[in-house]
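anyone seen this seq b4? input:
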Amino acid sequence: MNSQTPVIQVDGLSRTYRDVSALTDVTFSLQPGIICGLLGRNGAGKTTLMRMLTGQEFPSAGSARVFGEDPVENSTVLQQMCFVSEGQRYPDGYQARHVLAGAPWFFANWDAAFADDLVGKFRLPLKRDVRKLSRGQQSALGVILGLASRAPVTIFDEPYLGLDAVARHTFYDTLLADYAEQPRTVLLSTHLIDEVSNLLEHVLVLDEGRLLLDQSAESLRGSASAVAGRAGDVDSFAEGREVLHRDTLGGLATVTISGRLSAADHRAAVAAGLEVAPVSFQQLIVDLTNPSTPRSAVASVVFE
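predicted toks r here
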């Protein structure tokens, strides 16, 4: 993180619905011009957090500031933001072309020419009622809005799940290319972690409403290793190390070990007949949010 003023500042943010805590004491900040992944299991509090950042929810405690201001009913702030979520609703009879024609009213930096180009890329039928669009076409409409808004803060809440693999990669490639030309702060919530891992510069992980991880993506890459082989040899190698996860099949075992293995560690593993491989970004997040993972092992990744 650099010394710039944070574009998003969250301090002690909590949100409770009756006796259910959706968010508990969440604190983090994001600088301008970064692509950040917001990750976590279903029900972890991701959508609640995004709704609070966009002024659609009030905090039970703490604060959320965007551009240094409370976003609730703040048109100056909200015009500089774009929140795209799956299942976005529009008035009856609205066609895709109506949605795009109305976008300049909401987004100060709307780029109509870019939107037209994206319509062709994603093959979006403009004269069809939004409610009659396929799920993939509705996702494409959301992606087009998010990209062409050119909003300084753009938040995607998994609106691209309906896209097929080719269209999703078109979205990733277009986002990355446009981000390079038009830097902005992008918050990307997704379960397709490995697909977006190369896009991410920073990672926030929520687990049961609490912030589990607030770390640069680069520091996470290579922060755990998978060691596989005969169960006894694997257990001997793993002894005294922080183990995130263990799988057993017959007499074979695989463990995910937290922390970076040294060259000497690699040599020792090979000498013991073990295979060592990097852990994918997605598998690392899955292991970190697994209830059975020891908190000490999670901490060793967080503070690596």
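The domain at 222-302 is CATH 3.30.70 (Alpha-Beta Plaits). The two ends are 16 Å apart (CA to CA). kinda curious what u guys think
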